[in-house]
Amino acid sequence: MTARNTHETEITIDPDVPLVRIIREFDAPPEKVFRAHADPELFAEWNGPRRHRMETDHFDCRTGGSYRYRLVSEDVDAGFYGSFHEVRSSELIVQTFAYAGEPDGVALERIVFEDLGNGCTRLTATSLVDSFQDRDAFVATGMEVGVREGYERLDDLLAR
Amino acid sequence: MSADPLSRVFSALADPTRRNMVARLALGDATVTELAEPYDVTIQAVSKHLKVLEHAGLVTRTRDAQRRPVHLEAEVFELMTKWIERYRRLAEERFRRLDDLLLDMPDGTGQTATTAQTEEGAAS
């Protein structure tokens, strides 16, 4: 393995607003981190859970563009789509995100690429949905079955 | 106030005093008086916090004579923290792959992504 800094992924789950915020730093300049998000081939190389491959239908990452792709594994085939609302190179991507099985549960995502100097970038990805239920379902979407089961177990427990 | 169970737990644990109370209860059951001791707050304030925790399903009050000790529903709490941790780990896995990709990516903007369109549309 290559030696590299281990950056912690920080997750904020807001109690008052239905959003999830993920913060992570990268040892690469914003231009590169942005490109890894905006270029469909590069994006497909790292997006999605482990052991899933991303099959892109279309991916047009510019203001007014849109995307649609599927995450496919042995037992999962999930479609996702959305629109790119605002794209500013190396700075910002504002997009919608929806799971094809739950088209009304659309999330508004804001990905900010912050230049930390020294060739490092802080990525802040905020997903805002319409309701807490959508937020929690959204967080569980596309996850391994075990997670969903755990989530359902928690629901059951809390419903007692 | 959000209605679904999971959000109630998130909400209950968003407050530092309540998180401390949960940490204290993880050591063992305690009465309201015992819970109030470390804080410069009234019994009433502690009771208010307890109601929120109770409503979220995180704690229960047993009917043990007059003491009515507060009991942490450890299973709910653990599932909750595990759930967030798993989500964090999945995000982390994804970002590790991005780390690797960034190491291999050439510098410069030789390639612009903005108009790229793949030909895999036929797949769906």
Question: What does this 3D model show about the protein?
Answer:
The complex is a heterodimer of chains A (about 160) and B (about 120). Chain A has an 8-stranded antiparallel β-sheet with strand order 1-2-8-7-6-5-4-3. Chain A has helices spanning about 30-40, 40-45, 130-140, 145-160, and strands spanning about 10-15, 20-25, 55-60, 65-70, 75-90, 90-100, 105-115, 120-130. Chain A is globular and about 40 Å long. In chain A, a hairpin with a 2-residue loop joins strand 7 (about 105-115) and strand 8 (about 120-130). In chain A, helix 1 packs across helix 2 (about 40-45). Chain A has a single domain, classed as Alpha-D-Glucose-1,6-Bisphosphate, Chain A, domain 4, CATH 3.30.530.20. By secondary structure, chain A is an alpha+beta fold. Chain A has 4 helices and 8 strands; from the N terminus they run ββααββββββαα. Chain B is mainly alpha-helical and about 120 residues long. Chain B has a two-stranded antiparallel sheet with strand order 1-2. Chain B has a domain at about 5-75: Arc Repressor Mutant, subunit A. In chain B, strand 1 (about 60) and strand 2 form a beta hairpin. Chain B starts with a helix and ends in a 20-residue tail after the last helix. Chain B is elongated, with a radius of gyration of 24 Å. Chains A and B meet through strand 1, strand 2, helix 1, helix 2 and strand 3 of A and helix 1 and helix 5 of B.
Q: Main traits of this protein?
A:
heterodimer, A: 160 residues, alpha+beta, Alpha-D-Glucose-1,6-Bisphosphate, Chain A, domain 4, 8-stranded antiparallel beta sheet, 8 strands, 41% strand, globular, B: 124 residues, mainly alpha, Arc Repressor Mutant, subunit A, two-stranded antiparallel sheet, 5 helices, 2 strands, 5% strand, disordered C terminus
